[in-house]
Diacylglycerol/lipid kinase family protein
Amino acid sequence: MQQAMVIMNPSSGKAEARDYIRAAEEVLQGAGYQVTVQETAGEGDATAFCLQACAECYDLVVAIGGDGTLHETMNGLADQQHRPTLGIVPMGTVNDFARALQIPLVPEEAIQSLASPRTRRVDMGRLNDRLFVNVVAAGSLAGSLSSVSSEDKSRLGFLAYLKEGIKELASNTAHTLTITHDGEIWEGSSPLFIAALTNSVGGFEKLAPTAAVDDGLLHCFIVKDLHLLNSVTVSISLLLGNLRNHKDIIYFTAKEVSVRSTEQVQTNVDGEQGPPLPISLSTIPRHIQVVVPED
Ligand SMILES: Nc1ncnc2c1ncn2[C@@H]1O[C@H](COP(=O)(O)OP(=O)(O)OP(=O)(O)O)[C@@H](O)[C@H]1O
């Protein structure tokens, strides 16, 4: 019999994940799996459970939680020889990875699609010595995005990030960043650098509309010194899915990028606070197999 481990974060989103365990077990048992449920109690648990699933050669690991739970679960798959297929039931407030893979955001529907026979191989990102699934941001704006409260995320979604971002822009802080990729070096003042693996960032699916989950590329945006006034035109370009063509944005794709600064600069990784600069980023093409809904 095939083995499935369900890793569930009871605190994700509106703290309703526990209510869906029974339904997930039923669908997986119906699909022929013997199911083990593991509930996280805090940071690091999802990674530890996933490492156990790799070591014990589970066939499937299902993450029930938000992007943070998914980030931790996928870090357990990093350099393992046996990597189970991944199933996702999005329960967070943003759920970027699920959006990028067209996994339903309604938990009941996502649970039904766990029995889908369709899978996709997707890229992972590497940041220094850990993995990321969706996006890395660096700069003064990235630091402020880490401070968006869960309450605001639940209430306002993407607008919560915009609210924090505008507050930060008003204080007009930018750092000197040195960004190296493919033998090219950019150095200048910037409030924000973004490297996205998928088209969905902060719940907003038009940031990098050309990014595919399996193109092996980091889609990078350098926001040149931004003032409140031109931030309006940048926001409009963002809404139109045309950010990469804005005159104050430098857009490029790369397989490897490094970002450093002589100043103390914060990062945000998959929506949570990351390590300070310097960082080295790269892609691990088609590293993970994910269950996706049937067409
Ligand atoms: N039982 C628990 N109680 C409180 N926090 C937990 C528990 N289990 C895990 N965590 C923490 O929850 C965080 C991940 O939350 P997750 O991202 O899944 O939900 P979210 O923040 O509501 O969603 P999103 O990232 O989409 O906004 C991790 O930092 C993890 O350490």
